Amino acid sequence: MDINKTTIENLKKGESFVDEPGLDEILKGSIEHNKIEFVTDTDYLVKNVDMMLVCVPTPITKDMAPDYSYISDVANKVGKNLRKGQIFVMESSVSPTTIETIIIPILEKVSNLKCNSDFGVCSAPERADPGKIVQNFDTVNRVVGGMDKDVTKLVADVYRAVTKATVMEVSSAGTANAIKLTENIFRDVNIALMNEFSVLYERLGIDTKEVIKGAATKYNFIAHYPGPGVGGPCLPANPYYIIDAASKVNYIPFLIRVAREVNDRMPLHVRDLVIQAYNHVGLALKGSSICVLGVSYKANVRDIQISPALKVIDFLKEMNQTIKIFDPYYAGEPIKDIVVGKTLEESVEGCDGIIVLTDHKEFYDIDFQKFVDKKKNLVLIDSRNIYEPAKLPKGLVYVGVGRPLKTIE
Amino acid sequence: MDINKTTIENLKKGESFVDEPGLDEILKGSIEHNKIEFVTDTDYLVKNVDMMLVCVPTPITKDMAPDYSYISDVANKVGKNLRKGQIFVMESSVSPTTIETIIIPILEKVSNLKCNSDFGVCSAPERADPGKIVQNFDTVNRVVGGMDKDVTKLVADVYRAVTKATVMEVSSAGTANAIKLTENIFRDVNIALMNEFSVLYERLGIDTKEVIKGAATKYNFIAHYPGPGVGGPCLPANPYYIIDAASKVNYIPFLIRVAREVNDRMPLHVRDLVIQAYNHVGLALKGSSICVLGVSYKANVRDIQISPALKVIDFLKEMNQTIKIFDPYYAGEPIKDIVVGKTLEESVEGCDGIIVLTDHKEFYDIDFQKFVDKKKNLVLIDSRNIYEPAKLPKGLVYVGVGRPLKTIE
């Protein structure tokens, strides 16, 4: 069930709106064997199922507060036809208090039924890694926590019936949501830590990528990597759900707040690296040109939600730099009114420099020699540190995030 | 070589001043086979070796600045007799800039020789986990970075000759030191993150230990645990070495700074938990009594350096609570003028509550039933979350760090 009619029409034809390897096969198989129904009508859906898995966006507003409009909306729509014995399962990432303070009150009010005695509510937060969702389905363990032990057990058993991964039952819906946010904030904070080290190590002349490689030889270190910022639907939004829940009990999670700030400032730091590198060859941003490689928020996917690349592009535009873009996942389509080049060569042509903003697999083997041959003092800003400076052609002016500026010799 | 004569005299007798399982056997074997010499005279040492491994303390001063006095001292003493071809290897944790800004200038000035052309300097930061140093010697990989590639290779080969672990050569001494600080600060920041979550989850009625257990079922999460603060010779000091090095290039690593602050505030939070729990049973701290279990900074070692337990004891003393202490590693010896009880029973006797500050293995199997039988409303503050509340006796008032207060039912 989705409220978007085009999405549903396409799904009926076996065409998914997300680009996940393996998904189309599953979709087509389900349609062929008549195992799936696609609907746009919530009333029809609620009347015809015993259990609902709710997967709605939980983004943030422009002023960085949780946007609960999607979940309020779904609770209102479901509540209308909710009947005894039904189970509402939340897959979306919400705060540890959202189920009890927003979802259940709406469901109870609209349905005139009582949670636990009449219907069940449970959290089973998704742990999807976009681009690998199908591949990970049987390997990434799940966590399930309901408002009631029996509901938890029942929902966990449903998940166990479809995944080979371990399904852990936890003591409450709030605990399940706390687990989801804790693990994502763990990532956000550790990326922020590496970003913070990067800015310092650039100034100390140390290569952060080498530092992380060295630290990762220790048994209790897990590598996270610096970059142009953190994007996508989860990491830049999740921390604000905890920050909001904390503010309601008069608590400011300073560390989480600062980590978010560190990551949010990275696009500006990347602009600074562009300025440094262009300045090194005697160019101002105004009047010079740059080719952006990659706009997606992460490698090998076509998704630009909260992508740091968009912020970097804005910052460079503000300084009146001429921008060209190449991203194989968007070839030919405009991003911020810039038509994305169809080939790498056409996009780099005539540019004073190149900036890598997404580490798509297609970028790893670029032959920079031919570009250096055509353009003296070509600049390469490697915001994802995907290249080994020692293997780059002589004469290229190179800088990475956490890697000091140098002319390749 | 050590400047402490008693240490050296005891070592000659085969008695080590540190309590590391397996170390005494190695020491005695070396003495027996005449493979080791113990000296107190630096001049004699420097005149008679080709390579020195320097392991001096790198603590912080009372105002939280790096205390470089030990390394300056050793550089001055070594410099006096330094000769061509010798190699100075730093095992202590220093900042990425310390070798070049402090050690080499002193060595060069005092010896009138030049680094690289005359003598070698290299960093090979220790990665010791106290209590497991011998056990880990062949399994924890090492990182070696010198001021010169040949020195790096030579020193790495010396380490390879004695350890089965992998020895990685990195591009500079500063990089090796950056790796050491990065991995320790990674731990400090992640413990701080779990401490920050703990204080929030207590207020939200969520058990942080369950949250961490749940999050650890995800493939890219690595568990760190909340507690009464972070102690020992490394984690509370290392971040200030980076903060100091950063301040010299006009950079404030806010995230690292805030993480340190979060951890440093935990002893005060633990005092707050004591106040909450005692208040719950109608007691003020003044006039009531508590038994502290554990004073070491970590489990199963006899080391109270910067132990958070000492701070908690100070805070409780300030509020005029009567304190008894039990720590099997200190039985009978005074800590902060309090004689440590010889047995658990004698120490708990007459106390209104018990607070666990170190997770020594001896504390896991304590039978609380007998204490609850003797004392109504007995309070247990479990700052290391080593107990399962469900398995504790009825009537005990329990609170942990990140675990809401409850009376066991």
Structure report:
Two copies of one chain form a homodimer. Chain A folds into three domains: 5-178, Rossmann fold (3-Layer(aba) Sandwich), CATH 3.40.50.720; 180-262, Orthogonal Bundle (N-(1-d-carboxylethyl)-l-norvaline Dehydrogenase, domain 2); 265-407, 3-Layer(aba) Sandwich (Rossmann fold). Helix content of chain A is 41%, strand content 12%. Chain A contains 15 helices and 13 strands. Chain A has helices at 5-12, 23-32, 42-48, 69-81, 98-111, 133-136, 149-162, 173-204, 208-215, 238-247, 254-264, 266-280, 308-318, 344-348, 368-374, and strands spanning 51-54, 87-90, 120-123, 142-146, 167-169, 289-293, 322-326, 334-335, 338-339, 353-356, 379-382, 397-400, 403-407. In chain A, strands 7-6-10-11-12-13 form a six-stranded mixed beta sheet. In chain A, strands 1-2-3-4-5 form a five-stranded mixed beta sheet, with helices on both faces. In chain A, strands 8-9 form a two-stranded antiparallel ribbon. In chain A, helix 3 (42-48) crosses helix 4 (69-81) and helix 4 runs parallel beside helix 5. The radius of gyration of chain A is 24 Å and the shape is elongated. Chain A starts with a helix and ends with a strand. At the A-B interface, helix 8, helix 9, helix 10 and helix 11 of A face helix 8, helix 9, helix 10 and helix 11 of B.
- Topology as H/E string of chain A? HHHEHEHEHEHEHHHHHEHEEEHEHEEE
Average of the residue pLDDT scores of chain A: 96
- Terminal Cα span of chain A: 58 Å
Question: Architecture of the largest domain in chain A, according to CATH?
Answer: 3-Layer(aba) Sandwich
Number of helices in the DSSP assignment of chain A: 15
Helix content of chain A: 40-55%
Question: Which CATH top level class of the largest domain in chain A fits?
Answer: Alpha Beta
* Total domains of chain A: 3
The two chains with the largest interface, and their residue counts, are: A-B, 60 and 60 residues
Query: In which order are the strands of the major sheet of chain A placed?
Result: 7-6-10-11-12-13
Given the C-alpha coordinates, what overall shape of chain A results?
elongated
- The poorly predicted ranges of chain A are none
Class from helix and strand fractions of chain A = alpha/beta
Question: The CATH topology of the largest domain in chain A is what?
Answer: Rossmann fold
User: How would you sum up the major sheet of chain A?
Assistant: 6 strands, mixed
Q: Taking Cα atoms only, what radius of gyration of chain A do you get, to the nearest Å?
A: 24 Å
